[in-house]
Amino acid sequence: MATNFGLAGQSAPPAHLAVRGVHKSFGGVHALRGVDFEVARGEVMALVGDNGAGKSTLMKVLAGAYAADKGEFLLDGRHVSISNPNDAAALGIQIVYQDLALCENLDVAANLSLGTELVKPWRFLPRILRPLDDLQMEVKARAAIDKLEVRTLQSVRAKVGGLSGGQRQAIAIARAVGAESSVVMLDEPTAALGVAQTRQVLEVVKRLRETNHAIIYISHNMRDIFEVSDRISVLRHGVNVATWRTGDTNPDEIVVAMTRGLNDARADAA
Length: 270
Known about the structure:
- The chain is an alpha/beta fold.
- It is built from nine helices and eleven strands.
């Protein structure tokens, strides 16, 4: 059964991250029109919609890349502010973009510590002059990889440039997990991957759910969405259509909601 968040009732899990009435405009283009959205810990919330529906804009608002024009943000029911990426990171919100933002000339351990590099604890030198603590970064990387049980990666000293697409996606997800996050947003994580690599990524997403993260999963691939998601939220023209429990709907109903709206989806399902 489809629900709107304001009417979700007792069946909806308690939200870890929630937004209420979010608006975002770019000049005359109103990309988000009062969107409500939420995700719980230990759940994969799929966010779907046709091109231009507002999915990426909402994710960038949550990641702090865009500042919302209006709206409320709540973390475990507490009002918070997200106006830049530092705000989002401090709240434990991480995003894995499609381009992954990995440095191919660096190894896995270095990529997992990008921006949070560990240095030697040499107090006789200012921090900016201390050499990198490669051993501790390797330990940190191995812990993040083991947490997600990424079995296809033989060494955290392997150069990223020589890894497969599925392995790179797993590394980008592991970096988000290693940043002490509670919310991980994945933007089209299986796009342009082959069958075997897609399988690797989907297994990582399932294990990420088991670590009690709140996962937001953007994809156009209905097969992937129905395999990994617990709920599916549909956006259309910057507005919420509805949210379904994955087991209570089907791909045809979701596609109709994406392209024609909730009433048509209900009519087709009747």
